[in-house]
Write a structure and sequence with these properties.
Helix content of chain B: over 70%
CATH topology of chain B: Butyryl-CoA Dehydrogenase, subunit A, domain 3
Largest interface: A-B, 62 and 79 residues
Number of domains of chain A: 3
Number of strands of chain B: 0
CATH architecture of chain B: Up-down Bundle
Oligomer: heterodimer
Distance between the termini of chain B: 85 Å
Largest sheet of chain B: none
Chain lengths: 381, 175
């Protein structure tokens, strides 16, 4: 980048920003929102007032009967707590008697952090889905790409739990070209599977989403694809504290029913690659994914380290022009001195033939490539 | 009777506290908004163009102010920048292209009166929103790579990649 280019870039952004209109007025709806929130308190206060009257009605005769005294409010409180405990224990015993899957979720809420280093772990290969901003994007939607790595996981932890905990770990180091839309505070608490439904219990931060509808859906796509990896026809049910999620993210999406991989496809790039995964070699090289492109024609280029195209190919997805279809390429790896290639998957624009919605996956193989390992905890003891 | 008095006093105190929190929340948001509205609008102009910048800023601020974590956010400026970027990303990327096409076919009488620099808009048209954000934060806000990465919520490597791709798309402009 020369100094002249630097100056031109500054000139460009100055001219761009100079077109800025007057800032909009302070959004008054905020005040309305706040008032609505405060008005939500009113029924609670009315209820509290009514409860107070009932308490007094019941408490005053009691006070009179016992000859008065200031200890009664405490006695009343104790009585309430005792009845609550009774209700909970009844509910627990009922749950225990019924053949449901509730109890594993309940028991895995708080894994003990001290057991991490002491517990025996094993190296597990997992596939985790991240996002990529495609080149020459037609829609501006992110593409899903997969990353293969290993995690140190307890033998009891399922593959889905190991992969999801890696996906939501805060110390994630990502190679260039992939990003995550999952905010740091979001964590997976437990994963259970029954038939074809994988139930993923998340912490409360999950409910806030990722800060925007597209970001929210990208985050869900990452979680859904990762949770369902290697599981046939799996749907994912999200829960928080064991409860179904009825309002998620900025738009309050209802996630109370299981969602499949097709739930938010339209918020993805028109080309998505699930193999090769970042960091995974292969010979012959198999490139697979799903696309919704013009006439279902998907193109592949393998670019060497010098930027030269060494392999060119195209194929037809199982569906296209308005519907999603799967595609697959299989090609032998070229004989190269430098075993670093980039697979570019895209479709040719019907307008001008230019590569559109390009997804780039670096194919790295050899002993010098090291991906970070993570230690994850089991969801069940 | 002492219990009754105590309960009423607590209830009144809670009510007063709610009112105070509500009032403070509104005032804070308005102050925050007034502090950053101009720069956020300029940033949004760089991301989505001058036609939709105001809408993007309004949407972003509404979402930020109503977010549950907003009261705990320590760096509200950075949070609002990320909110603007997020809403701008949601905003369909083809909007700017469409507006430019509309301007092209519109008669001079019906064309928008707003001062627009068509050369610049056409130059940035091919950039993704993320690439525009990286360019703006680097060359307009003069932020170092780490700060750009923090404000965009991505890695410094990704920022470099966005900048490199943006420069590639802007080759014609740079030459």
């Amino acid at each position: 980048m020369s100094r002249s280019d630097d100056r031109k870039m500054k000139e460009l952004v100055d001219r761009l920003v100079a077109m800025s209109p007057e800032p909009p007025p302070f959004p008054e709806e905020v005040s309305v929102t706040q008032r609505e929130e405060s008005s939500k308190m009113r029924p609670i206060l009315v209820f509290a007032g009514a409860a107070l009257v009932v308490l007094l009605a019941a408490g005053i005769p009691l006070l009179l009967a016992r000859g008065g005294g200031d200890v009664e409010p405490v006695a009343t409180t104790t009585s309430t707590v005792a009845s609550t405990v009774t209700t909970v224990s009844e509910a627990t015993s009922t749950t225990g008697a019924a053949p449901t899957t509730t109890s594993p979720v309940v028991t895995t809420t708080q894994p003990a952090p001290t057991t991490t280093t002491e517990a025996a772990t094993e190296t597990r290969g997992v596939v985790v889905f991240f996002m990529q901003a495609p080149e020459n994007s037609f829609t501006g939607n992110p593409a899903l790409v997969a990353l293969a790595t290993t995690v140190q996981a307890s033998p009891e932890a399922s593959d889905a739990l190991a992969a999801l905990q890696m996906l939501t770990t805060d110390e994630l180091f990502l190679p260039d070209g992939i990003e995550t839309m999952i905010p740091d505070p979001v964590d997976v608490v437990s994963v259970t599977r029954e038939d074809q439904v994988v139930t993923v219990d998340m912490n409360e931060a999950f409910l806030d989403g990722a800060g925007g509808l597209l970001a929210d859906m990208t985050m869900l796509n990452q979680l859904i694809f990762t949770a369902g990896e290697g599981v046939e026809i799996a749907e994912v049910l999200f829960t928080v504290g064991g409860q179904p999620v009825t309002a998620f993210g900025s738009e309050g999406l209802d996630l109370s029913q299981p969602v499949g991989r097709d739930a938010f496809l339209d918020q993805l790039n028109s080309v998505n690659v699930d193999a090769p995964v970042f960091g995974m070699p292969g010979d012959p090289l198999v490139v697979t994914g799903f696309a919704n492109v013009f006439e279902a024609t998907v193109s592949l280029e393998l670019i060497d380290d010098a930027g030269e195209v060494v392999v060119e190919d195209f194929t037809t997805a199982t569906c296209g022009t308005g519907c999603w279809g799967a595609f697959r390429f299989e090609t032998g790896l070229p004989d190269l001195d430098n075993p670093l290639l980039t697979a570019r998957v895209f479709w040719h624009s019907a307008e001008d033939g230019s590569p559109s919605d390009v997804v780039s996956v670096p194919i790295l193989w050899g002993d010098d490539v090291q991906w970070p390992d993570y230690t994850v905890q089991p969801s069940t003891p | 009777m002492s219990f009754f008095c105590m309960a009423v006093t607590q209830s009144q105190a809670r009510l007063r506290l709610n009112v105070m929190i509500t009032a403070t929340g509104v005032m804070d948001n308005e102050q925050v908004y007034r502090s950053y509205a101009v720069e956020l609008t300029r940033y949004a102009t760089g991301l989505v163009g001058p036609f939709d910048a105001a809408d993007v800023v309004t949407d972003a601020c509404l979402k930020a102010f109503s977010a549950r974590r907003w009261p705990e956010v320590s760096n509200r400026r950075a949070y609002l920048y990320r909110a603007v970027l997020s809403v701008a990303t949601d905003h369909h990327r083809s909007t700017l292209s469409r507006r430019l096409r509309e301007m092209k076919v519109a008669s001079p009488e019906t064309a928008p009166q707003q001062d627009v620099d068509l050369d610049v808009l056409r130059a940035v048209e091919r950039l993704s929103v993320q690439q525009r954000a990286a360019v703006l934060l680097t060359y307009w806000a003069d932020l170092p790579g780490e700060a750009v990465a923090d404000r965009m919520g991505i890695s410094t490597g990704a920022v470099k990649r966005h900048l490199a791709r943006a420069r590639k798309h802007l080759e014609e402009w740079l030459s």
